[in-house]
Amino acid sequence: MAWTTEQRYRRYEDWTAEEVQHIKENIAKSPWRASYHVEPQTGLLNDPNGFSYFDGKWVLFYQNFPFGAAHGLKCWVQLESDDLVHFTETGLRVLPDTALDRHGAYSGSAMQFDDQLFLFYTGNVRDENWVRHPYQIGALLDKAGNLEKIDRILIEQPEEATDHFRDPQIFNYKGQFYAIVGSQNLDRQGYIKLYKAVDNDYTNWEAVGNLDFANDKTAYMMECPNLVFIHDQPVLLYCPQGLSKEVLDYDNIYPNMYKIGQSFDINQAKIVDPSPLQNLDYGFECYATQAFNAPDGRALAVSWLGLPDVAYPSDRFDHQGVFSLVKELTLQEGRLYQYPVAAMQDLRGPAQVLTNQTHTENSYELELDLAADTQSEIVLFADADGKGLRIRFDTQAGQVTVDRKEAGEPFALDFGSSRSCSIDRKAAKANIFIDKSVFEIFINKGEKVFSGRVFPQEDQKGIFIAQGSPTGTYYELDYGRKAH
Ligand code: FRU
């Protein structure tokens, strides 16, 4: 069905209990619900928000339109976890219910101050002429789970920015709090604006300047900027919409990219000696990644495995979007690595030697060893004819290719059905996480990553080695299984 603006922005209270029940029944029929990835209870999930540590627990929210697979009136939905693997919805929502966020509680971040968690987000407001007014606003969550919105604008839209001004990320740099906000200037170029909390008061922000990260200025908007520090080195992750493919090639409708700096010069608002721009993920779906430095110093990240302006086969079951696993970001020899947190191993069943299989539950991890100078191909979500998600490793030419053409229902075909990236020409390892309609492939423990969705047919449950002789281990993954 095509959603009208009116349907997308219908007030939450106007949806009847029968309509909500109908949506839930439809979702229950979906063959593609994930078993160990975060998904929306109903409707559409997009960006991760407010990823933080508060009151002895990990807190994470997802952007949600609860009434179907559409980008409509958004809220935040809270999840909690004690291991970064098992997430439970608490029922708490940041609703679009005030004059400052009436048309959507858009993306943002969180940070603990005293006994409260400060949520810093964008209130999306449309006036009577449907002109957008983006307000950077806040709310406070206490330990009992009560949410109180701060009823004034914390950062106004700057004069030099259009109405594309959103997604504040708060961060702590050497004891001082700052925030960066995704912006577009009047020449329709994307940039990132840096603010400082005056006297470390999170309700009082002053502009420092535009973040200098050697912006190539080809993108028209920088969505969801995040700055994290790994052993003092800044890593800037962001989504440069409309980025020229001459700057860096990418296949997805919108890219999620990063740069690594040598150091951060706060006085000049500058990321010193930034690396060239890099693709964060070589797969089909990865966007709006949110990263933060945990109190223990680790840089943790979660991505939306979905993209704006793309229709998914699951839409007809009234759900869209999943989160990636929580990934720890590290720097090794100057390169960014992304790898699921160690607690993911708690889901593993007994180790089994990799062989062809016809009937998995499509809920497993494969650890593959690819010898140097070899070519091999493995098909996952394979049917009896060996059709499925085709992954090809060529350690001779130094390339990995993932092709989803024959993996279930086609979608997003305008952007091609295969993806590849180069790897070093030597033996490689691959850890592949499969979950019903989700795949995450980590090459060499996170040196390169391919993430994406497939919507397999009912008989696509196999593993089929189509070429070469990759060896490896197969682990069933069970969300109910937890180490003691
Ligand atoms: C990115 C994004 C953000 C915005 C949010 C709205 O996917 O467009 O820029 O805050 O989604 O849901």
UniProtKB/TrEMBL annotation:
Keywords: Carbohydrate metabolism, Cytoplasm, Glycosidase, Hydrolase. It holds the Pfam family Glyco_hydro_32N. It catalyses: Hydrolysis of terminal non-reducing beta-D-fructofuranoside residues in beta-D-fructofuranosides. Pathway: Glycan biosynthesis; sucrose metabolism. It comes from the Bacteria. Residues 37-340 form the Glycosyl hydrolase family 32 N-terminal domain. One of its GO terms (molecular function) is hydrolase activity. SUPFAM superfamilies: Arabinanase/levansucrase/invertase (SSF75005), Concanavalin A-like lectins/glucanases (SSF49899). It is found in: Cytoplasm. Belongs to the glycosyl hydrolase 32 family. This is Sucrose-6-phosphate hydrolase. It comes from Streptococcus panodentis.
